[in-house]
Amino acid sequence: MEQHLPLPPFNLETAKQKIKSVENAWNSKNPFEALLICSEGSEWYSGNIFLKGHKEIKEFLTAKWKREVNYKLFLKYWAHTDKSIAVQFIYEYRTANLMWYRACGNETWEFDDNGQIKGRFIRTNDFPIEEDERQLNEKLVFIYKVLVYFNKSSIVWNRGFLKFSSP
User: Fold this and answer.
1) Cβ(22)–Cβ(37) below 8 Å
2) Which of 84, 125, 152, 158 is most buried, judging by how many CB atoms fall within 10 Å of its CB?
């Protein structure tokens, strides 16, 4: 079976590397790429949605990204153990009727020994926004990441909005 680095047990650095790889896979909006980070029997729980295995997850992601146009995800490290990682997330998308939405929440991933997600537990809140309220366009995401990288600011979630705070 193929291994997906970094492997558990996680430390702070490898947990953040894994978060970046998950974020990149999701922002590709390619179900096949997103499935590479999940074990074949991966189980996902999100509210009333229960998915098990690549087939169900692929169908879910294909429909999701068809429905959610201009999808952009931003993940923030929250906590980790040897074999799990918790993140806070925010993403924005537009629907076919040209309405913009922001979703935010918390997510926990459990990993197998090969570094693939075997369990995904999500709590999400979606709400409509105006296009000029968007925070996750390419330019703003780049600025956020540069500031955090150079430790000039940290990103704080506040009721679904990104805020800056001093280090």
Assistant:
1) yes
2) 84
